[in-house]
Specification:
355 residues; alpha/beta
């Protein structure tokens, strides 16, 4: 039974890439749905799918997050994961579609929920803006603010994985730092008339043709601070590469809720990975192993997969430190090492009750 992927806005639902990609459940806004009805909606999803992963952008209204926590609290369910993302609207929609693709595979709900953080590192989300005067979600320098007052000034802004702003059309144009592996480009046009994403990014970022276009999300003007924009996202489109990227990362079991996880934090209860003595050699090993393993299978099945994994070794995201397998699981390990066991906290805090 596939895990249900739910979203807090219809903007986050892109057309499926293939007939096997499951749909996403759109949760109505709190102002249009009573709390009882929202609880009933979630109960229906749990009864049908068993587990639900809800993707909620950090830019969503606070009432949306409060409603999600209220529903999960009333149901007292440990099968509802709340995944927050800082990606802009179009980038968040691409992340949701990748999770929908992976939901049709054999991943457990815990791995799927915690994979969102890993996948976000390989999504290059940005926009061409007519002004950066109201942009507050990406650091803007004073010089960029001043240049924004020049007539006809356009800016290329990269929100993630590494924020960057360059002015277009000036002397000594800079280039946005893009992926060094093959990707596909998705473009959503607003009120700004420019073909810069297709004419400049396609050759510079090794974009696979053809370029895909979609409607501009309703929340994009608010996120970017202007309606004069063209939003773009470069991403890994091929399911074999996505599958190997996630499958090759070392898995752990959450000490609190028992769910599987990758990385350093459970996607369901948000409890951190328990560790006695994490060795430095294990830091960031998950993403590097994923890229190395995907090269063997992805390169044979998907054109350009070898480029993805060969180039990304140098730019793989550093995951949070995790202990080597067996370092935290062996009974009596602390006694064998001559270390006194850590005292138990007097009052345990349930991480699921912490927003």
């Amino acid at each position: 039974m596939p895990t249900a992927i739910a979203v807090t806005s219809a903007d986050l639902v892109l057309p499926p890439t293939d007939p096997q990609t499951p749909d996403a459940a759109v949760l109505p806004a709190p102002e249009t749905r009573s709390l009882d009805a929202s609880v009933a909606d979630m109960q229906h999803l749990l009864a049908r799918y068993g587990s639900v992963v809800v993707v909620c952008p950090t830019s969503a209204p606070a009432a949306v997050e409060r409603r999600l926590h209220a529903v999960r609290g009333l149901l007292e369910s440990d099968r509802i994961a709340l995944v927050r993302t800082d990606l802009p609207p179009l980038g968040a929609a691409v992340l949701v579609r990748q999770l929908r693709q992976l939901a049709a595979c054999d991943f457990s709900p815990g791995v799927l929920a915690s994979a969102a953080r890993l996948l976000a590192h390989y999504i290059y989300a940005g926009a061409v803006l007519g002004s950066v005067s109201r942009l507050d979600r990406v650091p803007v320098s004073l010089s960029s603010h001043l240049k924004g007052w020049l007539p006809g000034a356009h800016f290329a802004v990269l929100a993630g994985p590494t924020p960057q702003i360059v002015r277009l059309g000036g002397a000594g144009d800079q280039r946005l730092a893009g992926p060094e592996f093959a990707t596909q480009l998705l473009v959503a046009r607003g009120q700004l008339q420019t073909d810069w994403p297709t004419t400049a990014l396609v050759p510079a970022w090794q974009i696979q043709s053809p370029v895909q276009e979609t409607g501009l999300p309703e929340t994009s003007p608010g996120w970017w601070g202007t309606g004069k924009l063209v939003e773009f996202v470069a991403y890994l489109p091929d399911l074999p590469v996505l599958y190997q990227l996630v499958a090759s990362v070392r898995r752990e079991t959450c000490h609190w809720c028992g769910m599987e996880l990758i990385g350093d934090r459970c996607g369901f209860c948000t409890a951190p990975l328990a560790a006695l003595a994490p060795p430095q050699a294990a830091v960031a090993r998950g993403a590097t192993q994923a890229l190395g393993a995907a090269q063997a299978l992805g390169a044979a099945q998907t054109p350009g997969a070898a480029q993805v994994l060969g180039a990304a070794r140098a730019t793989a995201p550093a995951l949070d430190p995790v202990p080597a397998r067996g370092a935290t699981r062996a009974p009596g390990a602390a006694r064998a090492l001559g270390a006194a066991p850590a005292p138990a906290p007097r009052h345990a805090i349930d991480p699921r009750t912490v927003p």
